[in-house]
Amino acid sequence: MTVKKTFLQGLLANNPVLVQLLGMCSTMAISTSLFNGVGMGVSVLIILTCSNVVIALLRKIIPSKVRIACFIVVITGFVTMVDLILKAFVPALSSSLGVFIPLIAVNCIILGRAEAFAAKNTVLLSAVDGVGQGLGYTLVLTLISVVREFLGNGTFGGGILNGGEGFRLLPSEYPALLVVLPFGGFLALGSLIALVQYIQKRKTRNNGGEAIAK
Amino acid sequence: MSFSAILSVALGAILAENFVLVKFLGICPFVGVSKKVDTALGMGAAVTAVMAIASLFCWLINAYVLVPLNLEFMQTIAYILIIASLVQFIEMFLQKVMPGLYLALGIYLPLITTNCAVLGVVLLNTQNDYNLLGSVIYGLTGGLGFTLAIIIFASLRERLDLTADYPEAFEGFPIALVTAGLLSLAFMGFSGLKIN
Fold it and tell me: Which residues from B are below 8 Å from A198, CB to CB?
């Protein structure tokens, strides 16, 4: 596998959230504003890349029987570092993501990539895979956040742009608060995955030469 | 902790602040092991046990080891190691005593280690400064809330497979998420439930 291919895999074809269906909890829970979405995405990107590199470095030393425990210790170490850094330098993000920052330690994406990719590939490829998968996650998170914030709050970039207020796109009496509540999280992710499945199904149908309009 | 405080923590964890449907913790097993009511019940019981026992041990370790040594920043690592060893222990126990359930849970049993509901509950215990009794009650009732949600969801999905008619693109995961969303809407009716 080449570097470019590995990178692009994570962005679209093998997107961690939309295709591999990993990391659901955090995706739905914190995607309520642009600030949360980007902040969480970048934190995961950094942790994923670092842990992928370290695990690829250690892949010949770690005995396969206790590999999961070793992966978890490596990952949690980086999570603790990021948690402390965020608390010190971006306290607003730290308090708004709350318990979901330490919970990155058990995010299936990171353990999944360690097991499926970093444990079997070279350091360079693992680093590229970490960046690609991390960007894919950030992309999806940002997309869902922007949509949910717009529909549920009527703003864009809340918590970060325009002095933390965000730009108001809809008058405050229109937005449906329901969308930023848990229900909206389930619905938004469900619809997005359905869209991806729809595109995949159409593609296979067209390739099979039996494109029948329904 | 007074009796009413305990009752209020319990009611909150089961209904108003349900771990899966309101706090978004433990979604993977919630969607993964909810195709049949029996397996869902087994998973719920296993998660409840791990959550209650993990709350107990993590509280003890935190209060008597981490805090006296000023090692609070090691909480996440310490907690996850405790949870991993607990899960390993429960796995061996089930394999010996209830092999049927052990096989039914399959890959999801070791995955309880990475279930965010379990790590979530011990982190929230620390964050909320619950005492020993409060932590255990919160863990136990949080697990019961998880069990309640997963059983309702599994019975919904059993019916969904038989009767429902939905667009082809929604097959599998998406329709499960939409169903869970409607369920969470129902649980929102409990918000504001308080005992004074």
Answer: 168-169
